[in-house]
Design goal:
27% strand, 246 residues, globular, 10 strands, four-stranded mixed sheet, single chain
Length: 246
């Protein structure tokens, strides 16, 4: 039997397809392979409170400015179908110890998953809906808060609360329309301080801040320019929205 050399075959294949390292890739390389990619743009909303609790939003602390540290370990649980999630099992095998640095000024029992969520922040929802309409998205008939799984420890609950507000819209640029797939409102995750060995450290000042997530359809060129334009568009819209307390 002829001896099989996987390493040699790997190099032959790379050469045959004209492989180029990502750090060395030029625009012509992406055009050659017909590369297309959509964008997922995140933009925080400047509100007084976080999305699902009444802690102040937009206040950030230094790494060592905290009042308590909470330590947790991941424990996989069976789903409604009676099976374990494969990704959760992989993360569990890393034996990571997750540490959360908590400052009393910007966190409460909701952030550490000891209190149910409060009603969604009204101002954040109104700003997000305004942007949804300006983006010519079709506003959903009902807003349903759903869960998006987070397994890296950046959200103590293990999931992110999120809701789709609009679908199938467009953003008019100078010479092209960019199709938008959807816009969602969701809570932000913790900021990572370090990830060394089996210990991962987060701080919770950003946790729970409202943000919008805009998803575009595939685009084949000028990705960074359009990403910048999308962010600027969202930021300008946010400033223009006025809120009068009831």
């Amino acid at each position: 039997m002829k001896k099989f050399d996987p390493g040699k075959n790997y190099e032959i294949t790379r050469k045959a397809i004209g492989y180029v390292d990502r750090k060395e890739a030029k625009l012509k390389d992406y055009k050659r392979i017909g590369f297309k990619s959509g964008l997922e743009v995140h933009q925080q909303l400047k509100t007084k409170s976080k999305l699902f609790c009444r802690c102040p939003a937009g206040i950030y602390h230094d790494h060592e400015d905290y009042n308590a540290e909470l330590i947790r370990h991941m424990r996989p649980t069976l789903s409604e179908l009676g099976v374990y999630d494969g990704t959760a099992l992989m993360e569990f095998k890393t034996k990571k110890e997750i540490r959360y640095r908590i400052n009393n000024q910007t966190a409460c029992t909701y952030e550490v998953d000891d209190t149910p969520p409060f009603p969604i922040d009204r101002l954040a929802l109104e700003i997000a809906l305004e942007i949804t309409i300006l983006s010519k998205l079709n506003v959903v008939g009902e807003v349903h808060i759903t869960r998006k799984q987070y397994l890296d420890g950046s959200i103590p609950t293990g999931f992110q609360r999120t809701a789709i507000l609009g679908v199938e819209g467009e953003l008019q640029l100078k010479n092209k329309k960019v199709r938008l797939i959807q816009l969602s409102i969701e809570e932000d995750s913790c900021r990572e301080i370090s990830d060394i060995g089996h210990v991962r450290v987060f701080k919770t000042d950003r946790l729970g801040m409202p943000l919008i997530e805009t998803v575009t359809t595939r685009i084949w060129k000028r990705l960074m320019s359009w990403l910048r334009l999308l962010n600027i568009s969202v930021s300008l819209t946010e400033v223009q929205v006025k809120y009068v307390p009831e």
